Amino acid sequence: MKATGISNGKIILMGEHSVVYGEPAIAIPFFATAIETTVETTNGPVSLDCFFYKGPLSQAPKRLLNLVTVIIETVKKLDKPLENFDITINSTIPAERGMGSSAAVAVATIRALFHYFKESLSNDVLLELTNISETIAHGNPSGLDAAMTSGTSPLYYIKGQKFEFFPLKVSAYLVVADTGITGQTKEAVENIALLYHSDPKKTDDSIKQLGQLAKEAKQAIQQNKTNQLGVYMTQAHTLLDSLGVSNTILNTLVHTSLESGALGAKLTGGGRGGCMIALAKNKEHASQLSDVLLNAGAKHTWIYNMRKDD
Ligand code: PMV
Question: Which atom of ligand 1 is the closest one to the Cα of 18?
């Protein structure tokens, strides 16, 4: 017997990090990158086959603790024995690059296990189980990654609130560039928590400003004001950099895109590596920006038509 589960990557347009503190974020499911988990019947202990490891689940390395835990918790929830199946994970989401790969692996795997055991899976249970994995991976997840990697519509997301679907339909393109450097979401989230302790007033101001920029970006999107959206994106990057969650290569790629006429540019996701995004006026401009970013050191780029989103 064999069953599969799927999930997709995500791009945070505005509001990473501040979303952890209750401010709004705007995020997009990113179907150019995806994960498929397959569960297949075998005899004996469960084994795992993924990018980082192939072997018995019980001997998986510590870095896979979030995945191992979510498998154990899902099987417990299903009230089934943890034996007699193998799990294979195929992913085109670059790992640890701010595209939500850890949440997406959990989502695809939970779906595959429910499918394999022929049980229906509610969205609440899916998000609850995914957040167990995300808490191990990030410490204090906002829930945004779990929502985006399991969803099919862009969201205006506020932690703990009902999902607000938010079709973008903006006449612009996003260029997503991967620095090729592993991001450090957990460390970046922890760094901001430390800043909150050492300088509460300044940190709180920055977080609130990031939230305000997300609110203003929402209006700019609703009015199709792409220049304005770009300005807010770049302002968000400056704030994120001041909170210590950018790095040299991200700053270089942001700077290079702006010099090449991007309407705005910022890091996306956890930061300290991972990916950045640049807002392009049209398809040709996006293609030019993509070339410029690859020349400046990006390892991979994707072009995303924001108008197509609904
Ligand atoms: O780096 P990623 O893809 O896991 O995105 C993290 C987003 C944060 O806002 C930094 C954390 C969170 O839980 O929302």
Answer: 9
